[in-house]
Write a structure and sequence with these properties.
α2 runs parallel beside α3 and α7 packs across α8. 40% of the residues lie in helices and 17% in strands. The relative contact order is 0.15. It has one domain: Alpha-Beta Barrel (TIM Barrel), CATH 3.20.20.100. It is built from 10 helices and 10 strands. With 272 residues, it is an alpha/beta fold. It has an 8-stranded parallel β-sheet, with helices on one face. The protein has a two-stranded antiparallel sheet with strand order 1-2.
């Protein structure tokens, strides 16, 4: 297993994203992923599937200390007492004493960031999480969070795939020794029909999606592809046995555009 390292944490470079996975489908996929060798599972309060993720973790038989579990606090729980209470609720649903990584899911300008990161550091001190970080934070917001947080922030989880240029965020993460974790790394399936990625894939005996994931891994980015299909689980995991050339990396980077973002909402920050 390959890892992305940051400030004393080793994040498995490939994990399973669980957004939109619910009920038995979620539990079955997470359990199967763990049996296949995945050691990084990503969930969130807003996904309403923490209970199923916890059930799958126990059913898999994989020792708890071998699995890196991430969950995220929703923006309505960013006030200090709410943050601690909702973290306890997440742990109860997961039936875990701690998670490996606890993230602020989106920025929330209605609660002072200093108060929220103080509370995040406090739940870490209480032993509810081993590491803390942020998600969907711009460079400016990430740097403000790092500056105001009394404990190290180890991660910024953002949308990243070949159609979205995230150079500014990636370089800022490198500067601050923060791991970058990419959600929607295969652009919600869009990459599968991409001519450039498919052609590169043919040269390596790989699919367009595998090429896409490999491109991110070679930038020292961790990836959490989501799938609802069992057969895709193994495909997404089989990306460590080939390497893209510098020319191939450049060709894939050339696919990006300013309007390549797929996840945006009324509460999104002003993106870099």
């Amino acid at each position: 297993m390959q890892f992305v390292e940051a400030k004393g944490t080793r994040i498995p470079a490939i994990g399973l994203g669980t957004w939109e996975l619910r009920g038995r489908t979620c539990a079955r996929l997470v359990e199967q992923a763990l049996r296949l060798g995945y050691r990084h599972i990503d969930t969130a309060q807003a996904y309403e599937n923490e209970r199923e993720v916890g059930e799958a973790l126990r059913a898999s038989g994989v020792p708890r200390n071998e699995v890196f579990v991430t969950t995220k606090i929703w923006t309505s729980h960013f006030a200090p007492h709410d943050l601690e209470r909702s973290t306890k609720e997440s742990l109860n649903k997961l039936r875990l004493t701690e998670v490996d990584l606890l993230l602020l899911h989106w920025p929330n300008p209605r609660v002072p960031l200093s108060e929220t990161v103080d509370a995040l550091a406090h739940v870490r001190k209480l032993g509810m999480t081993r590491h803390i970080g942020v998600s969907n934070f711009t460079v400016a917001l990430m740097e403000e969070a790092i500056d105001k947080c009394p404990a190290p922030l180890v991660c910024n989880q953002v949308e990243y795939h070949p159609y979205l240029d995230q150079t500014k965020v990636r370089e800022a993460c490198e500067r601050h020794e923060v791991a970058l974790v990419a959600y929607s790394p295969i652009a919600k399936g869009r990459v599968r029909k991409d001519a450039v990625l498919s052609e590169i894939g043919r040269a390596h005996g790989k699919s367009a999606a595998q090429v896409c994931l490999r491109w991110l891994l070679q930038q020292n980015v961790a990836v959490i592809p989501r799938t609802s299909k069992l057969e895709r689980l193994s495909e997404n995991f089989e990306v460590f046995d080939f390497e893209l050339s510098e020319a191939e990396m450049t060709a894939i980077a050339g696919l990006s555009s300013r309007d390549g973002r797929l996840t945006d909402s009324g509460f999104s920050p002003k993106w870099d």
